[in-house]
UniProtKB/TrEMBL annotation:
Residues 24-278 form the EAL domain. This is Diguanylate cyclase (GGDEF) domain-containing protein. Signal peptide: none annotated. The lineage of its organism: Bacteria, Pseudomonadati, Pseudomonadota, Betaproteobacteria, Burkholderiales. The chain holds residues 444 to 735 of 737 of the full protein. It comes from Pollutimonas bauzanensis.
Amino acid sequence: SVKKDARNTYRFHTSDMERGLREQLMMESSLHHALDNGELMIHYQPKVNFSTGAVAGVEALVRWNHPVLGQVPPASFIPIAEENGCIDAIGMWVLEQACAQARKWQELSLPLLCVSVNLSARQFQQPRLAEQVGQVLRDTGLVPSCLELEITESTVMQDTEAAITALQSLKRLGVVLSVDDFGTGYSSLSCLKRFPIDVLKIDRSFVSDVTHDTNDAAITRAIIALAHGLDLAVVAEGVETLEQALFLQANGCDEMQGYYFSRPVLPDELADMLRADPVARNMDAAAGGAAP
Ligand code: C2E
Ligand code: MG
Ligand code: MG
Ligand code: MG
């Protein structure tokens, strides 16, 4: 009967919710030990330069291998880490690992390879951040211009005066600063001009439909024009198809990142990839496809 169906549906939702809540509680209680237990690891996703076809850098993306829940994506546990303060330790660990890893790749004859690290809102607001980043650079011996810090548009726009001060102290270290997920927040263009930033990263949500949706295409072109007008480099994230790559290349995007070139991979896989350089071959194919 309808009533029974309704009750079954209701029961189904309840147990679903209970499971979600149980998982949430499990994550909250075990995140504190994740670092010490060696459950966190970092995958690296290459970024490709359009004009040279070379891997310009890699982005560090943290993962959590939970003993019961399996692979937990950062979108699920970073907000918890922000809430309970674990992000300070996790963030520093990612930064140290990523800088040390970049040095290893550089010694493997990739002297210019850059590494990007994401900063959460709480890390960005931490008054000792620049001091800590400087310390990690000294400890690992990574050249500051080989470290890029990604801060989301919504984070930098939260309190723009404080953001300018924080960005300036990071900039004084000589690191590269980029605004992540650009286009999804509410940027004041006059603020953008005052930020000592180097890169805008076009959010994946625009890129995914760029070849089918004329609005997304228009927004993407506008972001590229805005970035270049402000003398910033522009990177597209979430590039999954050759068509998207060709659109971005034709419209002057500087770098791209996405499954079309590579998913985030473990350090050894990345080293193999850079040695074999399939990414560069992909780029040649893209350039060949674009030629008249
Ligand atoms: P993000 O910084 O914007 O990173 C890009 C996300 O898009 C990554 O998801 C990446 O795996 C995914 N991605 C890349 N290319 C493609 C593509 O072609 N198609 C699709 N569908 N997705 C693609 P991931 O690794 O799950 O990370 C999600 C977010 O979690 C990141 O977004 C970043 O905001 C945050 N995050 C990751 N690692 C860290 C970290 O170490 N610290 C902090 N604070 N946040 C992190
Ligand atoms: Mg990012
Ligand atoms: Mg992003
Ligand atoms: Mg994004």
